[in-house]
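User: My collaborator sent over this chain with a note saying "see what the structure looks like." That's all I know about it. Can you take a look?
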Amino acid sequence: MITLQNIHKSYKMGLNSLHVLKGINLEIEKGELVSIMGSSGSGKSTLLNILGILDNYDEGEYRLDGKVIAGLSETKAALMRNEYIGFVFQSFNLISFKNALENVALPLYYKKISRKKRNKIAMEYLEKVGLMDWAEHMPNELSGGQKQRVAIARSLIANPKVIFADEPTGALDSVTSFEVMAILRDINKEGITVIIVTHEDDISRMTKRVVKLKDGNIEADFAPKPLNNFALNGSGTYLRDKDDILLNIET
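Assistant: Without extra context I'll predict from the sequence alone. Here is the result:
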């Protein structure tokens, strides 16, 4: 699905240049669930922007689903994003004057799908994330977890091949974070590639693969120790950690 070969990226800073990515080589197969980790300044946000076709690279080659991504005009880049990519952000990026249904339906507006049809599809995706009853509510009437569920539904509605989630749990409490991760894991089980940027170790352990960046290079690439040292509660659907937090995930 994704192949990076010798990717370099620098930014001009006055008379100087900041070399952020220093020859990244990475392959991510279709259907993988991957987390990208690294401290501030490691290059993980820059890498995500390049993968999401939000920024260009200086040297190397990026292939998405076999297509070389290079030198695209903004129009062509937008078309590629619309065809292949869904985004989930830490700050949710919901439109404040549109309700949950309208926010979810927005990508279909740009595909020129009729209002009736896109609202019907949007309702189906709100149901998928458990928010059908909140369709008419405005973003300021939703909790952080509900906002992120709306954002996830919006990212899915155009049937992307890959979801990029930038710190999707960064603004959420622990229990809500695990609920959001449960949804992302379910999405991945449907065959969609999911790539999550996170600084949280427990979140990365809910993915199948961790890529760690340091100073613009890949420091490590490994399968994390899963969150599986927990006792199931009576329903068999939750896990309980040592701090008595319920985790709505499956191992």
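A starting point for your reply to your collaborator: The mean pLDDT is 86.
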